[in-house]
TrEMBL record:
PROSITE patterns: CNNM (PS51846). It comes from Reticulomyxa filosa. The keyword Transmembrane applies. It holds the Pfam family CNNM. This is CNNM transmembrane domain-containing protein. Gene3D superfamilies: CBS-domain.
């Protein structure tokens, strides 16, 4: 399609070659493919994935050296607008800003805590966050979730409480406290 205007230029005038090539690119490169694949793009992607893989393999000897060369010629730095540390500081400032207009606030405290925690994940280790098994409060499988049972769930103090069938090491599931507590 890119070479079409060059060949058409030999047959017709230059302006007509451009009009014809642009029309062909628009119709066969944009409109027809979108009309064919718009109804179910995932299915179309599935059925044409073999063709994309074939093109990747066939064009690899050309594309990889070219991309390597272009990366060397036009070296560019991938820059992030804010580092993780700067984002944490920004969230901290928003969370504790006394002049922050409450009517126009974009984040509530829970969202800020979530965002700050998600930025810290890359530095956390499981052993620092886990609760030792001897300190875990678990609940019996047949606990009735009446007011007394819900108080037991609440007293556990965790968002997820293991549920056991016969003994505390026979865990069969988890009780989500945020789902259970609002029942009453």
């Amino acid at each position: 399609m890119e070479a079409l205007p060059i060949f058409l230029d030999m047959l017709v005038s230059s302006w007509l070659a451009v009009v014809i090539s642009v029309t062909f690119v628009l119709v066969f490169g944009e409109i027809v493919p979108q009309a064919m694949f718009a109804s179910d793009p995932l299915k179309a992607g599935y059925y044409l994935s073999w063709f994309v893989r074939l093109l990747q393999v066939v064009l690899f000897p050309i594309c990889y050296p070219l991309s390597w060369l272009l990366d060397r010629i036009f070296a560019h730095q991938h820059q992030v607008a804010f580092t993780h540390k700067e984002m944490q500081t920004l969230f901290q400032v928003i969370a504790h800003d006394k002049d922050y207009d409450e009517t126009k606030k974009e984040f509530d405290k829970d969202e800020l805590m979530f965002l700050k925690g998600s930025l810290q994940l890359r530095h956390q280790k499981i052993k620092e966050e886990m609760v030792p098994w001897n300190k875990v409060k678990s609940l019996p499988y047949d606990l009735v979730l009446d007011l007394k049972g819900l108080k037991e769930v609440y007293k556990c103090g965790f968002s997820r409480v293991p549920v056991y069938r016969k003994h505390p090491n026979d865990v069969v599931g988890l009780c989500l406290t945020k789902v259970s507590i609002p029942l009453y």
